[in-house]
Amino acid sequence: MKKEQGHGDHIGAIMEPQEFLAYHLTRLIDNGKLKNRCRTQAVSDTVNGEETEVITIVNDSEDIQWEILLVKGKEQYELVSAFPLLQPVERVKAKITGVGEWKNMIEATIFCEIDCDNEDMDGCQLQFFATDYAWNKQRYVVGNYLFIDLAAIAYNVREGQKGFSFEGQKAIDFLAKTGREPDYDENGNVQPIHFSLEHLVAFLTHNEDYPDNVEFQSPISNITPVNAIDVDLYRCEMLFKHDPDRKLALYFRREFIPAPQDGMPVAGVLWLQGHISDNQQ
Q: How far apart are CA 24 and CA 228, in angstroms?
């Protein structure tokens, strides 16, 4: 599990964490609305694993929501967590295979498999931060099947590699592996072999210490400008697997790719989050 448990990097995908704390956090709490109130075990400044009240505040006045977790301490409510809350595009059926509870006992990274109960589909393993863990601990149980809404925000993103070529001896060696002879141009030069990566879908855990961080490449579609506390971003759809195709909402700052286009391959590192879908049918 994570060596450092917090949301500085996740806030940093949008703005500097220091700026968020100094200028925006108080306003978001003041303008927010109650999303959930529950009693559960928690750890905060004055609570050490006892059952107490946990309040979730959400500010939804912008394209990206902000979720804030408060624990009722000995004398006052104590801020435990704040992070961007993203809007999904598609739910997936997941089998829970592990629960990495954080030290505060109200957040967790969930390990799961999707498309694993159908032999006609290619299953895959995912790890995501559960935005609803505080009040859904009893449902995130190993072996349970749940429909999960997923979304992601990129720490960094760039236009992905569209392809590459083998020329000369590399082309000859590759063709030899496939049992083929090279073609030659009118000057007797070996014709290069071209490989396309424009439709490549890659989705790999970036760091075992941070399993909900993913290195990715995918073509994107349905690109929409959005805003989060006066920061300009794009929201789009990407693929995180084939057979069948599974889509994921992806957010990234516009400064990374000022003019993205449908079908453009993009690559980078993202943070994956999810919550239990309201629709479990």
A: 11
pLDDT at 233: 97
Q: How far apart are CA 223 and CA 39, in angstroms?
A: 40
- In this prediction the pTM is 0.90
d(CA 225, CA 232): 7
What are the φ/ψ torsions at residue 270 (nearest 5 degrees)? -130, 165
pLDDT of amino acid 119: 63
> Which residues make Cβ contacts (< 8 Å) with residue 238, sequence separation at least 6?
152, 216, 218, 219, 220, 221, 247, 248, 250, 266
Handedness of CA 115, 116, 122, 123 (dihedral sign): positive
Domain ranges of the chain: 8-85, 91-160+198-276, 163-196
**How many other C-beta atoms can be found within 10 angstroms of the C-beta atom of residue 126?**
25
**Alpha-carbon gap, residue 171 to 190, rounded angstroms:** 7
